[in-house]
Amino acid sequence: MSARKKSDQQPSQKTTHLRLDRTEIDTLRSLPSAHRNKSGFANFIFQLGERVDPNTGSIRLKRDEVRRIQRYIKRYETGGYQLMLKKAFKRPLNLR
After folding, report:
1. Tens-of-pLDDT digits for all 96 residues of the chain?
2. Residue 48 to residues 11, 24, 28, 91, Cα–Cα distance (Å)
């Protein structure tokens, strides 16, 4: 077995685990699949909707995903996709 160099190993990202309520789940999963490839942002929301457990509302987000959501909510407040994220993640996103 060869030892991997420290620089070859990806640093593990901190994650946060959220439990969304029914309204937040429905909002996140409401993006029609036709919007999936409209933009990187729409695709990001679509992927989040695919990852959330529709029964429990459980979703695990990496640090860069949390920051991306926070950035979109703060910087682009007036767009439809941004309002969708704001509704789905209305509670603070804190990393553990």
Report:
1. 444 444 444 556 788 889 999 998 998 898 888 877 777 888 888 899 999 999 999 999 999 998 888 888 777 656 777 888 888 887 766 544
2. 22, 12, 7, 16
The residue segments making up the domain with residue 74 are 15-88
Q: Give the chain's domain count.
A: 1
The answer to whether 28 and 90 are in contact (CB under 8 A) is no
Is residue 56 assigned to a domain?
Answer: yes
- Give the Cα separation of 30 and 81 in Å (integer): 11
With a CB cutoff of 8 Å and minimum separation 6, the contacts of 28 are 20, 45, 48, 49, 52, 84, 88
Domain contains 94: no
For residue 81, being part of any structural domain is answered with: yes
Please say whether the beta carbons of 16 and 56 come within 8 A. no
Report if residue 8 sits inside a domain.
Answer: no
pTM of the predicted structure, to 2 decimals: 0.73
